[in-house]
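Thread amino acids onto this structure.
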């Protein structure tokens, strides 16, 4: 660890002793001291006390502008008044029944108005949505294999946990990546059913269809890779996938858990002008409550209607989450709010670019809808293997230095990105940019020194 990074981490430790103590206590009973492995990082994660609007406070009372926003699940911002009002009204009229109610068709209708789907089923997490979408695709085609892209993340079920973050020795050929289980406990049979291709490489997709004739049920993808920072599909890539699916009788599944609400009014299908067969939604559609949905053609959903594919869940469409979802679609994800967030996004990206240019930091800024990221690379990344070349210490330097200045610029980990909520203000963006302007010269200096060191040793 180099001295400037060490200095920022020491400052972090000085500012957050209550988080350190709380983490130590958690470790006694909870693996890694956190409820999701993504929340664990060294020396210990910040423990949160409360949030409001675009800010949150930690246990020590430090205030942060929040661009983590629960890993992008809160485009509404914390405690959005419309969502809170809807939730509070429901809290006193019964929180769960396990019976149908009249908010279900209302929310299904809202979704069908924005996304090219005819029918919708609901769940509680992105993992559930992609799991049911994959099963439905298998049922609809009578095929077992789901093609996914190296580095794309679709949640925690067996089909999804393949080649999420493989390590270099396991990579295989970039045009025919090896399928690598994302940890122990993923059955070999699951891995064998997930052929892997490279994002932005249509030839690698064609190859998989050639190698598995009549066996691939669907391609699943994040239309924008948002588990490697932010990696855009190159022009023609998504349309190319649509064509390959059509030629091979496979379904195209857009995992829009991140892009669905945050990219714009109609999500990725509107943004890229390509219609998938299925869409998976979660995170920001719930306005802060657990809510997910998957939607597709009526002909595919008929498999559920005919009891051929099973879908259920005790917590599905619980009135509290559904009330939050309705308020989110109607009062948060509005055209005016998208315009507001777009304006802030342009201001933030342009401000970062100016500072990057001024300091000579080798990096670029990329943004789409409410999301964006400082990408510490000399040129735009196109796939997972480009992403792994990041200087992780330099990235940690950026993150801790921003946090020490009251800006959680994004969730911890260099595979994430910032989210701008509808409650962020111009003043928040000004403060964010001032913090970055303060931090960037040290980043540029550290980068130059580290590059020079590498040059000496090679
Ligand atoms: C693209 C994508 N799909 C699926 C998931 C899984 O969602 P959840 O954590 O709600 O299960 C995530 C979570 O980060 C995601 O980013």
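Threaded sequence (458 positions):
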């Amino acid at each position: 660890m180099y001295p400037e990074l060490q200095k920022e981490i020491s400052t972090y430790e000085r500012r957050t002793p209550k988080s350190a103590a709380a983490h130590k206590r958690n470790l006694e009973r909870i693996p890694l001291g956190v409820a999701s492995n993504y929340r664990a990082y060294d020396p210990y994660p910040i423990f949160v006390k409360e949030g409001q609007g675009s800010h949150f406070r930690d246990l020590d009372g430090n205030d942060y502008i929040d661009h983590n926003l629960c890993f992008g699940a809160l485009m509404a911002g914390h405690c959005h008044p419309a969502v809170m009002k809807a939730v509070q009204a429901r809290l006193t009229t019964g929180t769960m029944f396990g019976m149908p109610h009249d908010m279900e068709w209302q929310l299904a209708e809202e979704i069908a108005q924005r996304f090219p789907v005819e029918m919708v089923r609901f769940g509680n997490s992105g993992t559930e949505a992609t799991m049911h979408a994959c099963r439905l695709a298998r049922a609809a085609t009578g095929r077992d294999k789901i093609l996914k892209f190296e580095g794309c993340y679709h949640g925690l079920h067996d089909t999804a946990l393949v080649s999420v973050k493989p390590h270099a020795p396991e990579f295989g050929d970039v045009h025919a990546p090896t399928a690598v289980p994302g940890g122990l406990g993923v059955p070999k049979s699951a891995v064998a059913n997930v052929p892997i291709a490279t994002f932005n490489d249509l030839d690698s997709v064609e190859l998989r269809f050639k190698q598995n004739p009549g066996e691939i049920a669907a391609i699943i993808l994040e239309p924008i890779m948002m588990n490697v920072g932010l990696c855009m599909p190159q022009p023609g890539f998504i349309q190319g996938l649509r064509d390959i699916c059509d030629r091979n009788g496979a379904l195209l599944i857009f995992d829009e858990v991140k892009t669905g609400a945050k990219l714009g009014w109609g999500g990725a299908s509107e943004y890229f002008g390509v219609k998938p067969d299925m869409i998976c939604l979660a995170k920001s559609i719930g306005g802060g409550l657990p809510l997910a949905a998957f939607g597709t053609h009526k002909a595919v959903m008929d498999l559920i209607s005919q009891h051929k594919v099973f879908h259920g869940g005790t917590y599905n469409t619980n009135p509290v989450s559904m009330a939050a979802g309705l308020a989110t679609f109607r009062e948060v994800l509005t055209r005016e709010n998208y315009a507001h967030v777009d304006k802030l996004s342009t201001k933030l990206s342009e401000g970062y670019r100016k500072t990057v240019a001024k300091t000579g930091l080798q990096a670029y800024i990329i943004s789409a809808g409410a999301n964006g990221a400082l990408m510490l690379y000399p040129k735009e990344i196109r796939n997972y293997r480009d992403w792994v070349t990041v200087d992780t210490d330099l990235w940690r330097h950026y993150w801790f230095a921003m946090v020490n200045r009251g800006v959680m610029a994004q969730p911890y980990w260099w595979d994430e990105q910032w989210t701008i909520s509808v409650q962020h203000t111009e003043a928040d963006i000004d403060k964010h940019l001032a913090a970055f302007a303060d931090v960037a010269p040290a980043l540029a200096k550290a980068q130059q020194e580290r590059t020079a060191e590498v040059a000496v040793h090679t």
